Amino acid sequence: MPEVDAPQGSHQSGVRNLGLAMRELQDRVTATSAPDDVANAAANAIQEICATLEPHRYIAARDKGWSDTQRGAGSKTLNPVFRNVELNGNVFQATIRFTTFHLGANGAAHGGAIPMVFDEALGKLANYDQSICRTAYLKVDYRNVTPLDVELQVRAHIEKIDGRKRFLQAAIYNDGVLTAEATALFIELKEGAA
User: Fold this and answer.
1) In which band, very low, low, confident or very high, does the pLDDT at 11 lie, cut at 50, 70 and 90?
2) Does the structural domain 79-188 have CATH classification 3.10.129.10?
3) pLDDT tens digits, residue range 98-142?
4) Where are the domains of the chain?
5) Which string of DSSP letters, residue by residue, matches 133-192?
6) Cα Rg for the chain, rounded, in angstroms?
7) pTM
């Protein structure tokens, strides 16, 4: 499901808000020049938060099959948030904004952050209203600098479906300029596979 605002007071709303706050924290930590006393105080506060959340931790090895709904949309804080999402069986479109947390060389988005965005967008499309599939391969071509702190457009579409194979393509644009593109193959899981 696309990440959208959940009703206030719901589990979705609380976990989404936590994810947004975590993204803000990631940006602040990445860009800080805080002195040791401030950094240590912040580290202690983060450890207290971790202790508060510990009893509610999702453990992948134990809790197989947890969906994005159970985890809460927005809890995957490595990726930028998808906004203005349009998703149907053939097309995914959204806007994103890479932040300081995603900083690579010379003020651009890190080259490793871009494939994560593609994998997430293409995965949402490949799995939309269909049986579960996983990434078999993802090839990324970098065409221009992908900047930070600007609204970027992510577009993806299904190229073809051949049995259990789903072939997809995606691109990121900065004001109409192609910055990166991807081709991918997702494979539908066999019955009973994890």
Assistant:
1) low
2) yes
3) 998 898 988 899 999 999 999 999 999 999 998 899 999 999 999
4) 1-77, 79-188
5) EEEEEEEEEE-S--BSSS-EEEEEEEEEEETTEEEEEEEEEETTEEEEEEEEEEEEPPTT
6) 18
7) 0.76
